[in-house]
Amino acid sequence: MPGSTPLSSDPIAEAKRQWLSHGWAGAADGMAAVTSLMRAQQLMLGRVEGTLKPFGLSFARFEMLTLLSFTKDGQLPMASAGARLQVHPTSVTNTVDRLERDGLVTRSAHPTDGRATIVTITPAGREVVAGATPALNSTVFEQPGMSGQDLSELIRILARFRRQAGDFVDPPVPPDPL
């Protein structure tokens, strides 16, 4: 936990040692990498959630408000929002339910597709995200806890992993103009 007393040794290094001693050398590095990523995610999420708590937001709620604030009209079909945020439709519904309960978004029927629902950021939602974004930028995103070189390398490595896992494809290279 952030803020707690650091452990006297790295438990992931000890787990790797145990993997090796149990004859799982082929899996030891992968276990250490996956476990390290999971722990790093916990540490980062703790920082993010701590920063957003005074604004009454979780990271999922912040992401939804930010996405909506970036759109031209402040609205998107819920399915499109879920696709862009890469979350399950149930998670989108739960996030929108909470944001709507707090008056930060509204829902309406899609004007041409009877099966779709439009989610729209409210002025209160814009105000909350306008306050939360500088706080998150200054306390987490501008100070992620690693050097710029390490950060760039990590971004490249994780993007390559995500691409290879089928998370996204590189956009086609546009042809040269005639």
What does the secondary structure layout of this molecule look like, with pairings?
Elements: H1 11-21, H2 25-52, H3 59-70, E1 75-77, H4 78-85, H5 89-101, E2 105-109, E3 117-121, H6 123-141, H7 148-164
Antiparallel strand pairs: 1-3, 2-3
Enter the CATH topology name of the largest domain: Arc Repressor Mutant, subunit A
Quick one: CATH class of the largest domain?
Mainly Alpha
- Mind summarizing the main beta sheet? 3 strands, antiparallel
Strand content: 5-15%
For the termini, the CA-CA separation is 57 Å
CATH superfamily of the largest domain: Winged helix-like DNA-binding domain superfamily/Winged helix DNA-binding domain
The total of helices stands at 7
Task: Describe the protein.
The protein is mainly alpha-helical and 178 residues long. The protein has two domains: 10-50; 56-142, Orthogonal Bundle (Arc Repressor Mutant, subunit A). The chain has seven helices and three strands, in the order H-H-H-E-H-H-E-E-H-H. The protein has helices spanning 11-21, 25-52, 59-70, 78-85, 89-101, 123-141, 148-164; strands at 75-77, 105-109, 117-121. It has a three-stranded antiparallel β-sheet with strand order 1-3-2. The termini are far apart. The mean pLDDT is 94.
